[in-house]
C-alpha cells in the first residue's frame, strides 16, 4: 500500500467526521458565508485541532478568500488543506548518523506506545541491514521486559536486560558496552512511562541521559517522545511537560488509526513547532510505523476535493 493510502486508511474516521460535518453545513449554492466559515472552524476544533490551531487555519483560509475574492466551496477546501499542510511544516525524517552509534531513547507516558515503537524501529532498521540492539530500561514492570522480548525475537535484534526493579541507567550502561562490543549501528532504549511520581520519572530520564553522555559521548543520541493521538488535547500537555523537563528531539504520534482524531497532529505542530513530528503509528503491527508525511497527512485528514 502506498504511503498516502496508509494515511488515508488510518485517518478514515477523522476524514468521515469532517466530511459529514461539512455536508451538514449545506454550503449554500457552493459558496461559503461567514456563518459557515465559523461552523467549519468549530468542526476543526472538534476534530482535535483545538482552538488555537483551528483559529490559525481558518485565519489563513479567510485571508485567502478575501485576497482572491473567492468563496467557492472547492477553493475554500483547497485553501483549508494548504493551511493544514503549512502548519504541519516540511517533511522531517528521523535521520541516523551513518558513521557512529545511534541511540534512540523512547520516552512518554504509560501506554503511549514506547515499547511497540521500539520494536517497530528495531524491525525497520534490521531490515535495512543495520546492527540493532534493544535495551529494556523499563524495569518498573516485569511485563514490560517480556513485551520488549517479543519484539526482540520478532526483529532479531538482541536485547539487553536486567531483573525487574533494577536501575534503568545500569541497563543502559550495559547496553552501551554491548553496542560497542558488537559495533552496533542503533541502540534503541525502551523506558518506563509509569513511576511513583512525575519527578521520579523525569529524574530517571535525566540520569539515563547523563550515563549516555558519559559512556557514549561520541554517539548520536535522540530522545523521541511518543504521544498517544487518542488522548486528544492531553497529548499536548504531555508534549509540553516532557519538552520542558528533557530535551526532546522528535515526536512520534501513535494510534493515529482507530479512534483518534487526527487533528491532534496539527495542534501539536502549531503548539510545539520546534519539535518535529517524525513518525506516525498507524496500527499495532510491525509494519505500521510510517515516516510522518505532512502532505499525505493533510490530504488524508480532509475530504478529497471535488473537481470543478
Ligand atoms: N492501534 C494502535 N495501537 C498501538 C499503536 N502503538 C501502540 N499501540 C498499542 O497501545 C498499547 C500500549 O502500547 P505500548 O507500546 O505498550 O506503550 P508503552 O508506552 O510502552 O506503555 P508502558 O510500558 O505501560 O509505559 C499496546 O496495546 C499497543 O499494541 C498504534 O500506532 N496504533
Ligand atoms: Mg512499555
Explain the layout of strands and helices:
Layout: H1 3-10, H2 12-25, H3 34-68, H4 73-88, E1 102-107, H5 114-127, E2 132-137, H6 142-155, E3 159-160, H7 168-181, E4 186-191, H8 198-215, E5 220-228, H9 234-245, E6 250-254, H10 264-271, E7 277-281, E8 289-291, H11 294-301
Parallel strand pairs: 1-4, 1-5, 2-3, 2-4, 5-6, 6-7
Antiparallel strand pairs: 7-8
Q: Write down the domain tally.
A: 2
What is the count of β-strands? 8
Strands in their spatial order, largest beta sheet: 3-2-4-1-5-6-7-8
H-E string: HHHHEHEHEHEHEHEHEEH
The CATH homologous superfamily of the largest domain: P-loop containing nucleotide triphosphate hydrolases
What descriptors fit this protein?
52% helix; Four Helix Bundle (Hemerythrin (Met), subunit A); Rossmann fold; elongated; alpha/beta; 2 domains; binds magnesium ion
Description:
The protein is α/β, with parallel strands linked by helices. The protein has 2 domains: 3-91, SRP54, nucleotide-binding domain (Four Helix Bundle (Hemerythrin (Met), subunit A), Up-down Bundle); 102-292, Rossmann fold (3-Layer(aba) Sandwich). Helices cover 52% and strands 14% of the residues. The chain is built from 11 helices and 8 strands. The chain has an 8-stranded mixed β-sheet with strand order 3-2-4-1-5-6-7-8, with helices on both faces. Helix 2 packs across helix 3, helix 3 crosses helix 4 (73-88) and helix 7 (168-181) runs parallel beside helix 8. The mean pLDDT is 94.
Amino acid at each position: 500500500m502506498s504511503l498516502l493510502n496508509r494515511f488515508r486508511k488510518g485517518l478514515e474516521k477523522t476524514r468521515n467526521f469532517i466530511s459529514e460535518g461539512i455536508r451538514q453545513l449545506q454550503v449554500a449554492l457552493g459558496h461559503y458565508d461567514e456563518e459557515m466559515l465559523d461552523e467549519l472552524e468549530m468542526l476543526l476544533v472538534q476534530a482535535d485541532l483545538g482552538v488555537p490551531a483551528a483559529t490559525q487555519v481558518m485565519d489563513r483560509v479567510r485571508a485567502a478568500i478575501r485576497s482572491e475574492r473567492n468563496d467557492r466551496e472547492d477553493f475554500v477546501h483547497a485553501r483549508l488543506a494548504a493551511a493544514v499542510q503549512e502548519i504541519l511544516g516540511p517533511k522531517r525524517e528521523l535521520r541516523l548518523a551513518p558513521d557512529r552509534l545511534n541511540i534512540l531513547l523512547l520516552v512518554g507516558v504509560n501506554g503511549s506506545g514506547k515499547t511497540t515503537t521500539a520494536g517497530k524501529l528495531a524491525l525497520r532498521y534490521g531490515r535495512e541491514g543495520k546492527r540493532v540492539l534493544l535495551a529494556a530500561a523499563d524495569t518498573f514492570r516485569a511485563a514490560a521486559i517480556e513485551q520488549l522480548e517479543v519484539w526482540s525475537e520478532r526483529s532479531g535484534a538482541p536485547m539487553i536486560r536486567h531483573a525487574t526493579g533494577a536501575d534503568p541507567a545500569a541497563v543502559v550502561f550495559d547496553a552501551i558496552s554491548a553496542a560497542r562490543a558488537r559495533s552496533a549501528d542503533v541502540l534503541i532504549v525502551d523506558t518506563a512511562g509509569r513511576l511513583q511520581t512525575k519527578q521520579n520519572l523525569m529524574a530517571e530520564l535525566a540520569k539515563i541521559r547523563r550515563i549516555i553522555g558519559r559512556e557514549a559521548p561520541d554517539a548520536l543520541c535522540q530522545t523521541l517522545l511518543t504521544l498517544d493521538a487518542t488522548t486528544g488535547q492531553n497529548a499536548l500537555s504531555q508534549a509540553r511537560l516532557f519538552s520542558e523537563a528533557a530535551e526532546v528531539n522528535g515526536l512520534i504520534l501513535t494510534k493515529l488509526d482507530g479512534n483518534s482524531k487526527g487533528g491532534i497532529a496539527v495542534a501539536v505542530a502549531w503548539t510545539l513547532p520546534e519539535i518535529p513530528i517524525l513518525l506516525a503509528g498507524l496500527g499495532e503491527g510491525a509494519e505500521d510505523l510510517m515516516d510522518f508525511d505532512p502532505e499525505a497527512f493533510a490530504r488524508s485528514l480532509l475530504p478529497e476535493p471535488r473537481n470543478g
